[in-house]
Amino acid sequence: MNILFTICARKGSKGLKNKNISNFCNYPISYFTLSAYQLFKEKYSYNCDLAINTDSEELLKQVKLTKINFTHIERTEELAGDIVGKIDVIKDTYKKMGKTYDFIIDLDLTSPLRTPEDIKGTLDELINNPEANLCVSVTDSRRSPYFNQIQINEQGYYKPVINRGVTARQQAPIVYDMNASIYVYRPNFLINSKGKLFDGNIKIYKMKDSAVIDIDNPEDSDLMQIIAEYFYKKYSNYNLVFKNIKNILK
User: Fold this and answer.
1) Of 145, 171, 189, 208, which one is least surrounded by beta carbons within 10 A?
2) What is the pTM (predicted TM-score) of this model?
3) By residue range, what is the domain housing residue 226?
4) For the domain that residue 117 is a member of, what is the CATH number?
5) Residues 21, 29: Cα–Cα separation, whole Å
6) Which is nearest to 10 in space by CA: 52, 67, 69?
């Protein structure tokens, strides 16, 4: 089985400046994704290529200090804007690799708490469901649009996002948070998509609830590092990814 892994990270960031090249637990944050990728390759018998789509010279410098083999895909100007959908960037990366793959797996750099087993679990969900187009990683949602998420109405008052008269959380349909850590695509869906993720038949893989927080500001980063230290002490598979960083350095 041939798998293309993609890492798509543009330079700069409005929420947390240069978050894709920031330090996390004393290493560049990208090294945690690279370590999980390398451990996945070693543990499972797939033919894997890694493509990094970026316009960040600093990120490339960081990655080149590791032993990880990768192909650099230059981020085009039209795909470098704030409102460009990531699926378009992944599609561009796949096309420019010029090879045929069975699956494309995208890993987000700002989700450092990810294990090889998480990657394999997300991939297996798609493999085991042939009618599905993609599988995304999720966590249990702490809020529900049916119960305790509200939005303003035309009169300036706040109402439930979806008002079905739910008075207890147990009555609400089960919802999940997409944590943006892992996306696995079938190539045909990716190539034919028009940048709309939810046009496909989606399956999910559930990760640990506290393991992924969107890092969009300095407080997110600080909190995530505290969580990471706890996970490294308690869970051997997370600690293995952290310890393996030394092995991927030149």
Assistant:
1) 171
2) 0.93
3) 2-248
4) 3.90.550.10
5) 6
6) 52
